[in-house]
Amino acid sequence: MADVTFIILTKNEEINIKDCLNSIKGFAKRAVIVDSGSTDKTIEIAKSFSFVDVYTHPFENYARQFNWGIDNTNITTKWTFRLDADERMTPELCRVLEKLMIEHDSDDVNGVTMEAWLYFMGRKIKYGGAQKRKLMLFKTGIGRIEDRKMDEHTVLSHGTSVYCKERFIHYDFKDMTFWINKMNWYATREMQDYFEYMEGKESNIHQQDKEIQGLRQKKFGVYYKFPMFIRSWLLFVYYYIFKLGFLDGKEGFVFHWMYHRWYRALVDAKILEQDIYKRPFERTGDLK
Questions:
Q1: What are the residue ranges spanned by the domains of the chain?
Q2: Residue from 249, 218, 248 nearest 234 by CA
Q3: Is 159 left (phi over 0), alpha (psi -120 to 50) or beta?
Q4: Whole-angstrom Cα distance, residue 20 to residue 4?
Q5: pLDDT at residue 149 tops 90
Q6: What's the 3-state SS for the chain?
Q7: CA atoms within a 13 Å half-sphere pointing along the CA-CB vector of 200
Q8: Which residue, 78, 221, 236, 240, could crosslink 3 as a Cys pair with Cβ 3.0–4.6 Å?
Q9: CB atoms within 10 A of CB 16
Q10: Model confidence pLDDT, tens digit, residues 20-61
Q11: Predicted TM-score (pTM) of this structure
């Protein structure tokens, strides 16, 4: 058993939480569930695991909820792990991470970054580019989530991070209605994050992982420089054609079209809507 506490944020995750917790059972010394008002069996299922403690706290945004978990759940293990309810560990990943934690117990390597195998509509998405890298494992007291509306990364107060090649599993799909509703919620947060950047909020990530830093720089320094709505088309063509996303069949098409084309166009629509609301009233004639 590794000297690590998992923090998992939940709300109505009864479909996911059992498999999530089973994937870390025997590996995690402790798991902390921070729930924001589940009305299904999420809490009941979580409490059935002896190594799990459940806390409730009102949700503001992901970063603040996770950081509340760091500060208020009495974590005493050497390491802390950031895991979502729809994510799973594999036995091989647990073995590799346990070796890394022992190897870097007393040096200045304070975090471990990794990527996911994404499953969408039941299919493993193998093509179209690697999944976004995240710093998920860090020494307790050294890592926190940056306070952003969207695309929040774990940052280290000091030290360095290493990359783990073994991947975790991400089941980013319950059904299409759920997924679309989630993307709509994400798009609003993405729009807010965009305007915070335009108003001067720093986009840099203060950590040593160049891959994570590079993704953020490409988003704000390259992607948003292209014309609105055209950029979502270009993104879809890049991932679906040039990064071979079409090799994942019908499920791959649905994923790349809905995420890179539809979702990114939805973000642009919300940016445009916000721009319109900010403009002075331009209609000629009286408003009655």
A1: 176-278
A2: 218
A3: left
A4: 16
A5: no
A6: CEEEEEEEEECCCCCCHHHHHHHHCCCEEEEEEEECCCCCCHHHHHHCCCCEEEEECCCCCHHHHHHHHHHHCCCCCCEEEECCCCEECCHHHHHHHHHHHHHCCCCCEEEEEECEEEEECCEECCCCCCCCCEEEEEECCCEEECCCCCCCCEEECCCEEEECCCCEEEECCCCHHHHHHHHHHHHHHHHHHHHHHHCCCCCCCCCCCHHHHHHHHHHHHCHHHCCCCHHHHHHHHHHHHHCCHHHHHHHHHHHHHHHHHHHHHHHHHHHHHHHHHHCCCCCCCCCC
A7: 0
A8: 78
A9: 20
A10: 999 999 999 999 999 999 999 999 999 999 999 999 999 999
A11: 0.89
Distance (Å, whole) CA 169 – CA 116: 5
47's tokens: 């409490």
